[in-house]
């Protein structure tokens, strides 16, 4: 996927990128490749693949959810900045917090924000289980996003505590989501969520099936969630 094809594919979905935004994506790609030589950020470094499987894929939630109406968002397990940085480039008004347990990735994301001139990007080092109990972050965001971090029942415990009541948790998932959805029903309900819709689509250039799961936060998350770091993975809510 060339940059022009990327821009055209987004335009067809109602997202028009300026010359400045396209340049920001180009800069982001170059920084990703450059820093990837020093630390493991991604296994995908070919330009067309990065534009399709990382950049375009990261923006797909905006095809099904009005990010132009969102003020505060948090990306849990943000890693190399997917989906947070592509969403932030497309929607510059977003106040975007990115939480990840690897501190050196936070250094990369701060550098990206500085180089691209992105304001209101807040890389935060820490585990979701710990940060989700802190008053500064708990139930503080309109939208929580996460991409390919863990199975949905576990991911819900990582993410739903960050969403305001009335806000949403949006999970970017791969193919065959039905078993995960069934497995996660109890966790989603326990944590105050309600699944509102699931959108299934094909990535461009036959790059595979994807699913977007949109969960509304309808009740406050009980105080004992998220549990201490490591516990959710060992004893997921089933």
Structural overview:
- The protein has helices spanning 3-11, 19-36, 47-59, 84-90, 103-116, 128-131, 152-159, 178-190, 231-234, and strands at 72-76, 95-100, 121-125, 141-147, 163-173, 193-202, 209-217.
- By secondary structure, the chain is of the alpha/beta class.
- A seven-stranded mixed β-sheet has the order 3-2-1-4-5-7-6, with helices on both faces.
- Strand 6 (193-202) and strand 7 (209-217) form a beta hairpin.
- Helix 2 packs antiparallel against helix 5 (103-116), helix 3 (47-59) crosses helix 4 and helix 7 (152-159) runs parallel beside helix 8 (178-190).
- The model has no long low-confidence stretch (mean pLDDT 96).
Give structural attributes.
alpha/beta; Rossmann fold; 238 residues; 9 helices
> pLDDT below 50 for ≥5 consecutive residues: which ranges?
none
* Largest sheet: number of strands, sense, barrel closure: 7 strands, mixed
What CATH first level would be assigned?
Answer: Alpha Beta
Give the name of the CATH architecture: 3-Layer(aba) Sandwich
Rg, Cα atoms, Å: 17 Å
- The named CATH superfamily: Vaccinia Virus protein VP39
The N- and C-terminal alpha carbons lie at a distance of: 40 Å
Number of strands: 7
What is the residue-averaged pLDDT? Answer: 96
């Amino acid at each position: 996927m060339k940059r022009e094809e990327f821009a055209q594919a987004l335009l067809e979905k109602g997202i028009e990128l300026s010359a400045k935004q396209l340049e920001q994506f180009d800069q982001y790609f170059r920084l990703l490749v450059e820093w990837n030589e020093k630390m493991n950020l991604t296994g995908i470094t070919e330009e067309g693949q990065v534009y399709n499987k990382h950049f375009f894929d990261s923006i797909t939630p905006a095809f099904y959810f009005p990010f132009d109406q969102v003020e505060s968002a948090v990306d849990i397990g943000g890693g190399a900045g997917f989906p947070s940085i592509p969403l932030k480039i497309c929607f510059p008004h977003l106040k975007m917090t990115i939480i990840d347990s690897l501190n050196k990735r936070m250094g990369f994301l701060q550098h990206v924000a500085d180089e691209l001139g992105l304001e209101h990007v807040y890389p935060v080092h820490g585990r979701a289980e710990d940060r989700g109990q802190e008053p500064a972050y708990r139930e503080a965001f309109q939208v929580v996003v996460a991409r390919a971090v863990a199975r949905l029942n576990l991911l819900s415990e990582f993410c739903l505590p960050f969403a305001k009541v009335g806000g949403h948790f949006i999970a970017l998932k791969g193919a065959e989501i039905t078993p995960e959805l069934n497995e996660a029903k109890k966790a989603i309900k326990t944590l105050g969520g309600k699944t509102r819709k699931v959108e299934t689509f094909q990535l461009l250039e036959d790059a595979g099936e994807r699913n977007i799961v949109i969960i509304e936060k309808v009740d406050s998350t009980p105080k004992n969630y998220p549990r201490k770091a490591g516990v959710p993975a060992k004893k997921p809510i089933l």
